[in-house]
Amino acid sequence: xxxxEFITLAGGVAAWPYAARAQQLGMQVVGFLSARSPGESAxxxxxxxxxxxxxGFVEGQNLVISFRWAEGHYERLPALASELVxxxxxxxxxxxxxxxxxxxxASTTTIPIVFTDGGDPVSEGLVASLNRPGGNATGVSFFxxxxxxxxxxxxxSMLPSVKTMAVLENPKLPQGALQAxxxxxxxxxxxxxxxxxxxxxxxxxxxxxxxxxxNKIGGLIVTADPFFTGQRDRxxxxxxxxxxxxxxxxxxxxxxxxxxxxxxxxxxxxxxxGVYVGRILKGKMPSxxxxxxxxxFELVINVKTAKTxxxxxxxxxxxxADEVIE
Length: 326
Fold this sequence. Notes:
By secondary structure, this protein is of the alpha/beta class. It has 14 helices and twelve strands. The chain folds into two domains: about 5-140 and about 265-290, 3-Layer(aba) Sandwich (Rossmann fold); about 145-265 and about 295-325, Rossmann fold (3-Layer(aba) Sandwich). The strands form two sheets. Strands 7-6-8-9-10-11-12 form a seven-stranded mixed sheet.
């Protein structure tokens, strides 16, 4: 048996008796469906638990979390969601954007669902409206497509002479295409040629950086995607090794070593999802909980990476930063 298959089994069927015992003891069981991997999601899971605790729910005391991880393979999500439905969990928390949310919603019309999503959940067909979601799902949205143009603007501020950029997009995430288009539109406004590089497998990542170097790409925009978040260490390492200034939506990538990030807080989204799950466990219906939208976007600049790349961060950009990594 392959290691990955064993991990899926260990977090799947083998966990059912434990969840069933928890239900017999009167504990609530929450299904945790993620497009990401457990190792790189530790901080996110911690934030989710913090949100649950704000509602009085503590894992191991009055709550059990049943985890399912797709490990970046979005095609696994429907089967994993079905496993949670078969367990009769009280709520499904779906993390990892549109693929996880759609998989959860397609699996049940009765179990409440709380999702996180990088796009517009209305246009993606996840909910009827932002204020009145309807159905059995609600959640937190980043509206990352609207941020993609800002990423180009910030990278241009750092690299005003650069005339070629590229966008890293995962074609398996429908919302990624919107982000890529927004980035290209913004780039045209600065007179910058912006190519799109498709990456859907970890084996493709190094090849893309080789292509970027060959094509003399001056800057890289990484779209908001759970797969890229899971590959943040590798992306940061390759960006530095190939001297390619890179910006992303998520702070996690800037902490890992990419040059900059700009977007809503991913960790706070997990916390807010935990809060919503707690409210549902206390009797609220998802249709009564409006979609949470970001109210603050954070700019993070990794000055250490800038020095490694031989870049001087403009004082005006430093003044805008919410966090500077030395």
